[in-house]
Amino acid sequence: MGAAGQRQILEELRERIRRLERRPARRGGFLPSGRGEVDALLPGGGFPRGALAELSGGPASGKTGIALSILRAALAEGGLAAFVDGRGELYPPAARALGIDLGRLLIVRMDGPGETRRPGAPPAALAAPSPAERVRSLLWAAEALLGSGAFGAVAIDVPLRGADPSRLEGMLRRLGAAAEQGGAAGLWLGSAAPGRRLPAVVRIELGPGGRVLRAVARGTADGSRPGGAGHAA
Amino acid sequence: MPREAPGGSPRILALALPDLPLQRILRARASPPALAVVHEGAVAHCTPAARAAGVRPGDSLVQARAACAQLEAVPLEPAADRAALRALAEAMLALAPAVEIASPDALLLDASAANLAYSCGADPEAALAGRALALAAALGYRGRAAVASGRGPARALARHGGAPLVQVPPGETGQALAALPLAALDLPAQVCERLGAVGIADVGALARLPPGSLVHRFGSAGVAAARLARGEDPSLLVPYQPETLPEEAWDLDGPVETAEPLLFGVRQLAERVAVRLAGRGLGATRLRLTLKLDPRGEERLVLPLARPTAAASSWLVPLRERIGSLRLGAAVTGLRLAAMEVAEVSPEQLAIGDRPEAARALEAVLARLGARLGGEALFAAASVDRHRPEAAYRATPFRAGAGRENGAAGDAGGTAAGPAEGPRPTRLLAPPRPVVAEGEGGRITALRLDGCAHPVEALAGPERLSGEWWSEPFDRDYYRVRLSDLGDCWVYRDGGDGRLYLHGFFD
Q1: B145 touches B158 (CB < 8 A)
Q2: From A25, A60, A93, residue closest to B506, measured CB to CB
Q3: Which of 445-504 (B) contact A at CB < 8 A?
Q4: I want to staple B478 with a disulfide (CB 3.0 to 4.6 A). Which of B328, B352, B458, B492 is the partner?
Q5: Dihedral (CA of B187, B189, B190, B193) sign
Q6: CA B157 – CA B44 distance, rounded (Å)
């Protein structure tokens, strides 16, 4: 039996299991960011569903804008989107200005909305969880959202500072598996500094002002192998 | 005092719960023992196991214990039985527009609109009765139902009709009642005795008596009894309105140290609490599970839920997780589940493409997240008409797009993020970080942030934002500054202290 035949059988078995578990149907394909210079570098012309993509760059490199554009594309298909906001910095009015229907965007923040955090206001609750517990909870939330099948795209902005190194690898690996299980496009927002390797099928490094420094794509979760690696300066 | 229906006797579904005190005790236990409910020293109700050992209702407790040494005697608790009826009535509100509690052991449901609500079946009244019996069974009660015209006749037929479901067409109520004993009509004891003394043994005999003779012998009570016997009861239901939030308890067979029996009990409780909430059109937003510990003490778990729901399946996921992560110092002997906070459940469907699996998946994941992170951690943003950037949005419960007013298309009044405003950064820092400007010849060449200078490539602005003089006045000039090694930043000069602050990134 050829590889194509095996893939078809596997797909049929997955569909049967999905029906038995009464899980939502998975959607395949890609979500375009709407940024021509980024999409052109990606096989399929967008970010793959059912897989994790990494957008890394400095604090004003444009990675959040690209992630929001992908969330908007997921919302435009009638789905839902989520933003795991570990830094508590996402500014919803900007998301709205980008055309995102805020009512369909779930924001997850450990400290709550933080609406009252004004200049000079004291920091959040004193009884806050430890940094390790915080990272663990946020990654757990991201995994749950990605694997739920209810969200078309999930952006994850979780600084890993203070995380328990012995457990981190496993937690990050599970994110990729969860995205594959739930069929969501997972978008990991990373810093410019080289960090841990994520199980991401797409990596895009951005420089100041949104310049694409490097784009790499490998085999996606649905079995296709674009195999391409693009570079731009 | 019940009012009279304008168009004759209303159609009523009566649900009688035989041996209610016994059923109430047994439904909270995993397995039925040899047990008797005792009132004033005599057995009022007993389980089949007790009957098999020779115990009979009416026996004195001494006699009963002689027949069955292991007999567990539980005193009759009329208040607890009334509470059980109220709980059942609460759930029945999902089936009928009005429900009356007919103490001590029955409920009356308005069946006049059954043909509207259950029109898909051949017999809407039988469908309603079937649903009521099934709902009672889901709550742990075995019942008998009767559909007839009038409150009194329906109740009499349910209690004494002898079949699980008695259905009497309009106009035939009198014939249906004829064979029942006089006790079925719930007449005053004195009237019953006097009727018995003159040889009136059943309802049919009472119905055949000439009305004149009854007025003479028994007064108005006699006339009312005769009308009831003929199936004439135009009185309206006295609707029950619940005032407290539902709470259900479950006693375990013995001290339990593993999760599986606990989860079984929790599932029973969740379904019962959910059915009661659903009857009122409510969903729980916070649950409390109390575990009774052996030999004393208890552990309380409070579970905030992401969205109001009366679907027990949505509660089970976080409940299972919390129970699974518990480290108890003692075995558990009982469980109690209460809805602490509730909210109305919106009848509108989740706006996620009408995909039921996706809706279920969403409910489950929101419940899990809410239970672990707390309800505050999950929200959808909505724009607010405020110029202060950090107050230009507020958190609203995530309703999966049910309300579009906070979406891109709505929010006409939001000036802070409206089209007339300048661009907004994707990240806002809280609190803003102080920066120092470096320059030469009146031109800013760099911004120093945390001791590090960042060269300025371009600068646009200012956009003046000020206001709120009535509470916390602010006056800021915002600039979009392009730093060559970082990118675009949102910086403001505070009119109050004249200093510069980095407030966000155009990331």
Answers
A1: yes
A2: A60
A3: 472, 482-489, 501, 504
A4: B492
A5: positive
A6: 22
Q: Is B405 on the interface with A (CB under 8 A)?
A: yes
- Single-letter amino acid code for the residue at B86: R
Confidence at residue A137, expressed as pLDDT on a 0 to 100 scale:
92
Q: Does A21 touch chain B (CB under 8 A)?
A: no
SS3 B33: coil
Q: Locate tokens 């008797």: which residue?
A: B36
| Residue in B308, B242, B302 with CA at minimum distance from that of residue B85 | B242
| Sign of the torsion angle spanned by Cα atoms B58, B61, B66, B72 | positive
The Cα–Cα gap between B186 and B233 comes to 13
CA proximity to A156, closest of A168, A143, A173, A171? A143
**Class of residue B198 by CB neighbours under 10 A (exposed 0-12, middle 13-18, buried 19+):** exposed
Q: Are B237 and B151 in contact (CB under 8 A)?
A: yes
Beta carbons of B297 and B255 less than 8 angstroms apart = no
- Tell me which of A23, A71, A77, A91 to substitute to probe the interface with B (most B C-beta atoms closer than 10 Å): A91
For the stretch B62-112, pLDDT in tens is 999 999 998 999 999 999 999 999 999 999 988 888 999 998 999 999 998
Q: B260-277: per-residue pLDDT in tens? A: 888 888 998 999 999 889
Give me the interface pTM, i.e. the ipTM: 0.81
Which amino acid is present at B83? A
Tokens of B298: 């208890």
Closest CA to B380 of A42, A188, A45, A107: A107
Task: Name the pLDDT band for B306 (thresholds 50, 70, 90).
Answer: low
- Pairs of residues, one from chain A and one from chain B, whose beta carbons lie less than 8 Å apart: 211
To which residue do tokens 């020779």 refer? B54
> What's the Cα-to-Cα distance from B48 to each of B24, B78, B133, B254, rounded to whole Å?
15, 22, 22, 21
Is residue B414's pLDDT more than 90?
A: no
Residue of B nearest to A192 (CA): B486
The answer to whether the CB atoms of A24 and B357 lie below 8 A apart is yes
Summarised one tens digit per residue, pLDDT across range A179-220 is 998 999 999 998 876 666 788 888 999 988 788 888 888 754
Euclidean distance between CA atoms B145 and B159, whole angstroms: 8
**Predicted local distance difference test score (pLDDT) of residue B409:** 39
Q: Which residue has the tokens 């578990």?
A: A21
Measured between its terminal Cα atoms, the distance across chain A in Å is: 44
Any chain A CB within 8 A of the CB of B120?
no
pLDDT tens readout for residues A125-147? 445 678 888 899 999 999 999 99
Phi then psi for residue B209, to 5 deg, are -65, 140
CA–CA separation, B466 and B478 (whole Å): 11
Tokens representing B336?
């109690």
Q: What is the predicted pLDDT for the residue at A27?
A: 62
Tokens at A50, concatenated: 């059912």
Name the nearest CA neighbour of A83 among B380, B170, B312.
B380
Indicate the SS3 state at residue A40: coil
Write down the H helix ranges in B259-337: 259-279, 312-324
Residue B487 forms beta bridges with which residues?
A60, B483
Q: Per DSSP, what are the bridge partners of residue B108?
A: B14, B100
Exposure string for B303-341, b = 16+ CB within 10 A, e = fewer: bbbbbbbbbbebbbbbbbebbeeeeeebbbbbbbbbbee
Return the bridge partners of B195, or none: none
First and final CA of chain B: distance in angstroms?
71
Can you tell me whether residue B55 is helix, strand or coil?
Answer: coil
The Cα–Cα gap between B358 and B348 comes to 15
